Amino acid sequence: MRVIVIGSGIAGLTAAIALRKVGVEVAVYERAPELREVGAGISLWANALRALDHIGAGESVRAVSLKLTRSEMRGKSGRSVLISLDARAMEARAGMPELVRMAHRAELVGALAAHLPASVARYGHECVSVEADGAAARVRFANGHTASADAVIGADGIRSVVRTAILGASEPRYSGYTCWRGVCPRPASVEAGYIGEWWGRGLRFGITTLPNDRIYWFAVQNAPPNGRTADERGHLLAAFAGWPDPVRELIESTADVLRNDIIDRPPVREWSKGRLCVIGDAAHPMTPNLGQGGCTAIEDGVILARHLARAADVPAALTAFARERYKRTAGIVNESWRLGAVAQWEGRVSCALRDRLMWLAGKVMGAGAILKHAKFDTGPLG
Ligand SMILES: Cc1cc2nc3c(=O)[nH]c(=O)nc-3n(C[C@H](O)[C@H](O)[C@H](O)COP(=O)(O)OP(=O)(O)OC[C@H]3O[C@@H](n4cnc5c(N)ncnc54)[C@H](O)[C@@H]3O)c2cc1C
Predict the structure, then answer these.
(1) Is 22 in contact with 306 (CB distance < 8 Å)?
(2) 327: phi > 0 → left, psi -120 to 50 → alpha, else beta; which?
(3) For residues 14 and 115, what is the distance between their CA atoms, to the nearest angstrom?
(4) How far apart, in whole angstroms, are the C-alpha atoms of residue 251 and residue 236?
(5) Is any ligand 1 atom within 6 A of the Cβ of residue 30?
(6) Cα of 9 to ligand 1 centre, how many Å?
(7) 8 CB less than 6 Å from ligand 1?
(8) Strand, helix or coil at 341?
(9) Average pLDDT, the chain
(10) Where are the domains of the chain?
């Protein structure tokens, strides 16, 4: 069987590795001129690490990531700890060797790409259309190249061309908040392995530690869509004035600040049509509040390969894959959306109540809510 994957992000690379493991011939087409990933850090929960282990890529991803040891959620003043988690205690309770690791995105995609022979990925190929009939699926690229295969898998992100071919065109939905991200040196005041988040009113700031003494931070603010300022760093310093250390220091010591509106799409079941199918953000884009978008994209790759490995009928296998994945991913999309809405509340009274409830929930449920998604196991390839 021959499969074309559109997009060499986390979903496309994982699917390509997994498909090759089950004996499928794969070609990955990427519009960028070379392997590259903009973005800052990414959390890889146990569900993603386990899935990577099933395709033999776990150790190389561990080599470029850092294990969480301690996590805290605080109120804006920094004084009140709403939730405090000791990773070792949680891991012992859940019977898992590691709950979450943090990686730089560029290093993660580099580690994944190293599992593929150079001939698999073709850069500078922007897919402009896809179509399929009973015999084959065909792709046309902006550079005039065409290609055909038994199936085309769209791993081409939230504005996927393959998704449009399956479902028709539609705009993503804007959450009402925008995220700024950066990577900078780790100050001595932040221990390696720490993940922390401060919640204010319509504002959030989070930090995680990366390998090689770096910090990945993110700042979230309620804002109209498509906004831009001439000086994003200056904007953040003003928005987060008076927040506890090391917020100001981290923003000031960051060379490049990224800005993205947080968008997703309401879940849909139709991920496939005949020989076309979507995975990752092309299928189930989610807000990043649970840190599961990339993790579930990794799961998709493994489960897709399992379905195609034993496929006598390719369209039926893609339908079965989509059916299996819809329920899990739709639940996370919806939960993440709801969590983001509460996290971005602005009212003084509602935020005070929210923080109190978080503290109570932390005491009563511990890490149960977090562990729920991380416990998922795709199972082995075959
Ligand atoms: C602020 C923020 C923080 C996040 N934090 C986390 C986190 O901590 N943990 C986590 O698991 N997830 C996180 N996510 C979600 C995660 O980034 C995405 O779910 C993940 O990147 C999806 O991977 P993907 O491969 O499906 O799509 P993408 O990363 O969008 O990759 C798509 C690829 O396809 C290529 N492409 C697009 N169109 C075409 C075309 N027409 N032809 C050819 N190639 C094309 C693109 O160039 C790109 O390489 C976060 C997201 C955001 C916005």
Answers:
(1) yes
(2) alpha
(3) 9
(4) 8
(5) yes
(6) 6
(7) yes
(8) helix
(9) 95
(10) 2-172+264-374
Confidence of residue 262 (pLDDT cuts 50, 70, 90): very high
Q: Whose CA is nearest to atom 37 of ligand 1?
A: 156
- Among 13, 14, 30, the mutation site with the greatest number of ligand 1 atoms within 8 A of its Cβ is 30
pLDDT band at residue 259, thresholds of 50, 70 and 90?
Answer: very high
pTM for this predicted structure: 0.97
**Does residue 7 have its Cβ closer than 6 Å to ligand 1?**
yes
Reported as type and span, the H/E element at residue 371 is: helix 368-374
Tens digits of per-residue pLDDT, 91-134?
A: 888 889 999 999 999 999 999 999 999 999 999 999 999 999 99
Q: What's the confidence (pLDDT) of residue 335? A: 95
- Return d(Cα 215, Cα 182) in angstroms, integer: 8
**Closest residue by Cα to residue 293 from 282, 285, 301:** 285
- Give the C-alpha separation, 240 to 242, whole Å: 6
CB neighbours of 91 closer than 8 A, spacing ≥ 6?
97, 98, 99
The pLDDT-based confidence of 382 (bands split at 50, 70, 90) is: confident
Helix ranges (H only) for 70-229 are 87-94, 105-113, 161-167
Q: What is the pairing mode between strands 41-45 and 25-29? A: unpaired
Measure Cα distances from 130 to 10, 11, 151, 317 in Å.
21, 19, 10, 19
CATH number of 2-172+264-374: 3.50.50.60
> pLDDT class for 367, splitting at 50, 70, 90?
low
Task: Confirm or reject: Cβ of 31 under 6 Å from ligand 1.
Answer: yes
Angle at 12 between CA 136 and CA 166, to 5 degrees: 45
Q: Tell me how far apart the alpha carbons of residues 35 and 111 are, in angstroms, rounded to a whole number.
A: 11
Atom 21 of ligand 1: nearest residue by CA position: 294
- Mention every residue, 6+ apart, whose C-beta is less than 8 A from residue 266: 173, 333
SS3 312: coil
